[in-house]
Specification:
- This protein is of the alpha+beta class.
- Helix content is 19%, strand content 33%.
- The termini are far apart.
Length: 110
C-alpha cells in the first residue's frame, strides 16, 4: 500500500479501469486520443508513474486516490501510455488505429 499525504492508504499497484483526461487548453485532434472522449476509461496495471521534465509532452492525465499523474506522453514520433491499450477494449483499439494513422501520415510526408 501507498500512504497519501492525508494518511489514507491506497492499494498499489493500481490495477483496473481508470479515466484519462486531457490537459487544460489541449485538443486531442493530432494525438493518440483523436476521436476518444475526454474521460474515457482505460485499463491500468502499474505501481509507478512518470513525471515528465517537460509538462508540454503530457497528453493525458489520470488520478489514483489523490495522486494526479501523467498517463500518456507524445513528443515528435515518441508515444507512451501508462495504461494498456491492448486490454482497454474499443478505446484501446482507437489508440492503435490513431497510432497507425499518425505514423502512416508522417511517413507519407517524407
Amino acid at each position: 500500500a501507498q500512504i497519501e499525504s492525508t494518511g489514507r492508504r491506497i492499494k498499489v499497484p493500481e490495477v483496473g479501469w481508470n479515466s484519462v483526461r486531457k490537459p487544460q487548453n489541449m485538443t486531442w485532434d493530432k494525438t493518440l486520443f483523436r476521436s476518444i472522449d475526454d474521460g474515457a476509461y482505460f485499463y491500468f496495471s502499474h505501481s509507478y508513474h512518470v513525471v515528465p521534465d517537460d509538462d508540454d509532452i503530457a497528453i493525458g492525465h489520470a488520478r489514483f486516490g489523490k495522486i494526479h499523474y501523467c498517463a500518456a506522453v507524445q513528443k515528435n514520433l515518441l508515444y507512451a501510455c501508462q495504461f494498456h491499450p491492448e486490454r482497454s477494449g474499443s478505446e484501446g483499439l482507437k489508440i492503435y488505429k490513431n497510432f497507425r494513422d499518425i505514423i502512416v501520415g508522417k511517413l507519407n510526408e517524407k
